[in-house]
Design brief:
Pfam families: MbtH. This is MbtH-like domain-containing protein. With about 80 residues, the chain is α+β, with helices and mostly antiparallel strands. About 30% of the residues lie in helices and about 25% in strands. It has three helices and three strands; from the N terminus they run αβββαα. It starts with 5 loop residues before the first helix and ends with a helix.
């Protein structure tokens, strides 16, 4: 029994990505809460996220995140607690 039409099956497919591939390129994304995410470089940016401009190897992206994302708390929590 088919749940989706052939057209929808083509449109709705699972994307897999090898995060351990040394040739892989990534984007570093950020959301409104100033939380970051490593994202496959060839995939569209999901809603609620924006590109930081960093598009590099996993190691380079990880280094950027270590230097940039020094407070893991969401922005709204930082503001509530610190009055930032």
């Amino acid at each position: 029994m088919r749940l989706l039409s052939p057209e929808l099956e083509d449109a709705v497919r699972t994307v897999s990505f090898d995060f351990d591939n040394p040739e892989a390129r990534f984007k570093v994304l950020v959301n409104d809460e100033e939380q970051y995410s490593l994202w496959p470089g060839d995939l569209p940016v999901p809603g609620g996220w924006a590109e930081t401009g960093v598009h590099a190897s996993k190691e380079e992206c990880d280094e950027y995140l270590r230097k940039t994302w020094t407070d893991m708390r969401p922005k709204s929590l930082r503001i509530a607690l610190d009055g930032e």
